[in-house]
Structures are given as structure tokens and as C-alpha cells.
Amino acid sequence: MALMVKELVRRALPRTAYGMGRRLVKRVRRRESLEPIEEEALAGIVRDELGLREGDLAMVHSSVDALGLGFPFVRLLPLLRRIVGAEGTLLFPATHLVERPERWFERDEVFDVRRTPTAMGLLSEMARRQSDAARSLHPTHSVVAVGPLAGELVATHHCDTHPCGQKSPYSQVAERGGLILGLGVDVDVLTSVHCVEDTGRVAFPVDTHRERLYEGRVRSEAGQEHTVSTLVAHPRIRWRSMRPFFKRHISDSVCHRFEVGGRSFYRADAAALLERMERLAERGITMYRNGIYRGHFLEPLLSRWAEKLEER
Fold it and tell me: What pTM did the predictor assign?
């Protein structure tokens, strides 16, 4: 009976919705099986395994749910800030979007950096609410930062038409020798991988953005409204394989991935990761499927298919 119900559900739902449902069920079951991790134990992982130190600059990706905390989540950000100290700066992805960017642009809504919540989870939202937080004015890839370099790191993000371009906080972390950390997530959640596409330092073999520029309304911390132009990722970038790419091409010295008690973590050297991905791209090696490479005979078909999947 259970198998019959499963098959009926599979046939009734769009493939993407069914796949998302399966992944959600797996995550819930995995989370329920975790033994709660206490604050001291997590601090030890962050210091000893992830190597976060006083004065560090780090971009942090996270899933508080996947961490299975045995202490109130409101103590997680203070824990990280204590480790990096007064001289350290932490950044967090802080986009507000939960849909295709094109749909948000079509509604001509205003992204208010002071008031619009982030859709990137509890830790990013906590960071956004800090009194000393600074948030970038980018309409699709906003970043929030806390620490002495916060304002400087997010100041020029909206001046770059590429979300992860040279003026973005993602590239700035690499240029300044910073880290990228994953807490409760694997490299599927690592936005900085798109820097290799957006900085323009190497010829990238995949067209990862739509051709047109989109203009969004953004309200600054001072209450002033700006029009910010940006490129938007093309749906074809769904044809990628992050974990196999990292396993095959990214050494442990560049990105250290590990699990503790069923929880995923990673620590990447931002500059080394970007350099490695650039060298690979020069050889035609990327995280994307060959079928969407520029000039490949399957690219038009796979691109149209990706468009259709996004419409569901």
C-alpha cells in the first residue's frame, strides 16, 4: 500500500516538486535522528576543525535546523563573534528572494535593506538584526556583514552588474584572504563558486546569465531609493553537479569537507578556491554539465528544458 501511494504521489506531482519533497523528508528524518550538539562542542568544531581564529574574515553559510543545536539558536552568532573577536568580520548571504528574480523585478517592489528579512535562514537573519550590521544594496544577492570591515566590504556590491563580481563581498573575501565556512551544509550551499563566472578574469565556457540587465528598486540604510542594475542567472545553471565536482577537482587543502555526528561542515580558502576554479575553467572544466557549454549541440534543448522547469 505504501509503495502504491508513493507511486501515485510521484505521478501526480511535477518532477521538481516531487524531488524537493523527497529531499525535505530525508532532511527531516536525518535531523530527527541527530543527537543535540551542545555549545561547547560546536565551538570546538569551529575552532579546531574549521580553524576559525581571532581576527579572521569569513563568509558563513549555514543551516541552523541541520545543526540540531542543543542550546538556544540565539547564542550561535555570539559564539562565532566571540571566536573572531573585535577585529574579526563575519559575512552572511542575505538575499530576500524565494522565487525566480525575474518575477520579483516584474512586480517593481522595493528591497529595503533595513526592513526586508533575509530568506537565508536564522543565522543570517540574526546577523541582519545586529546594531552594527551593514547590508549590501544588491537586489538579488544581498550580503550582511558584522565587524570592523562590514561597511567597507558591502559598500560597492550594487555597483557591479555581476552578483558575484569583483565589487561584490564574495570576491572581496577572496581578495583579502578570507575564509568560507559551511555550518550544517555541504558545498551545494557555497555562493562564492560563482565568482569564477562573474569576475571576468578568465573566459568561462558557459553562459550563466540572461543577456538583459534587470533594474531593481532598493532603499538604503539612510532611506534613499536607488535603481540597481544586475544580471540574473539563467535557469540552465540548474544542470550542475557541485559535490562530484569538488570531490574530483578541489583538494582538501583548498576546501576541507567533513561530517561530525551526521552534520556537514566545510572550510574553504576563498582565494585558493577561486584560483583553482579559474585554472580549471581555462581547461574547460567546471561544475556544469557539458551539455550546456557554449556551442554544444544540446545547449538549446537543455536551456529550454530548464526554462520549462522553472515555470512549474
Answer: 0.89
